[in-house]
Design brief:
Blueprint: H1 7-19, H2 22-29, H3 33-47, E1 52-54, E2 59-61, H4 63-90, E3 95-101, H5 106-120, E4 124-130, H6 133-141, E5 147-152, E6 159-174, E7 195-198, H7 203-212, E8 224-225, H8 228-236, E9 241-245, H9 246-250, E10 259-262, E11 270-278, H10 284-296
Parallel strand pairs: 3-4, 3-5, 7-8, 7-9
Antiparallel strand pairs: 1-2, 5-11, 6-9, 6-10, 6-11
Helix pairs in contact: 1-2, 1-3, 1-4, 2-3
Family: Belongs to the LysR transcriptional regulatory family.
Pfam families: HTH_1, LysR_substrate
Domain HTH lysR-type: 5-62
Amino acid sequence: MSYLPSLKQLKYLCAVAEHRHFGHAAKACHVSQSTLSAGIQELESQLSAGLIERNNKQVMMTPLGEDICSQAQRILLAVDDLMASCEVRSAPLSGSLRLGVIPTIAPYILPKLLNRLRRSYPRLRVFIREEMSRPLTDALQNGELDVLLLALPFPANGVEVMPLFDDPFVLAAPRGHPLTAASSVPIEALRGSELLLLEDGHCLRDHALDACKLNPRDLRVPYQATSLTTIVQMVANGIGITLLPQMAVDAKILHGTRIQTRPFAEQEITRHIGLMWRGTSPRQAEYRMLGDFIKAGD
C-alpha cells in the first residue's frame, strides 16, 4: 500500500531547498534536525526517488527534488489559501495576518497602526516581518506573507496593489547650510551636492532619485548607509545632506539634532505608499478593508 506525502514532509523539503542546510531548515520548521531528516527520508521512500544530495560540505537538490519542491510550494500555498478562506468567513480582520513592511516605513507607521488595530479588531493577530522590498515580495509570492506595506511601484508578478497615500520627500541639511536659506529648494540645486543615500537595494533610494529626476552620476555620494537613522547622524555631523520621507520627520527622527528641513519647490517630489497582496488570495476584500483602515488614520 502506498501512502501520499504529508504536508509536513512537503514543508520540510521546501525548507531544505530554501536554506540548503538541514539544521537551519529544522529551526525554520520548529522541529529537531532528526525529525526533519526522518520526514524527508520517508518522503523519498514513498516517492521511490532521491530528492536531496547530501555530503559533508553542502546540501543540494536533485533535478527531481527541485521539481517536486516547486509543486510542493504551490500545494502549501493552496492549503494556506484554503485556511484563509475559512478565517474570512468567521469575521473580517480576524485570525492571523502576516504583514511585511519595509524598514523606511515600519518604525514610523506601525506603532500607532498596531494600537489602532488592536482596539478596533481585537481578534486580529498581526505578525510583522521587516525587510527590504525584494525579499518581501519573494516571501509574498512564496506564501510566507499575506500582505505587504511598501512604497510603490515595485515590480512583482501576479499581485494586486492598493495605493494608500503619498509621502513627500524633504531636504534635510545641517543648520546654516546654504540650501536652507530659502523657504523651499529647487531640485536643480541638488546637482553636484554631497547627497547621502541609502545603499543599493533600498527602494527609498530609487524612489527618491526618480521623484527628483536625478541621476546618481550628477551627484557626489560620499557614503551610503543602511538606515535612515545612520544617515541622520551623518548629516548632523556635517558630512552631507539627504532626502527624508515626511513620515520619518513627523515621527521625530530629527529630535535632538540641529538639522533643518525644507520642502522642494517642485510638485510631486514624493513616494507612493500602498498595500500589495497575491492576486489569487481569497482575502482580497479583507486587505482592502485594512487599506481603508490605514487611510482613515493617516
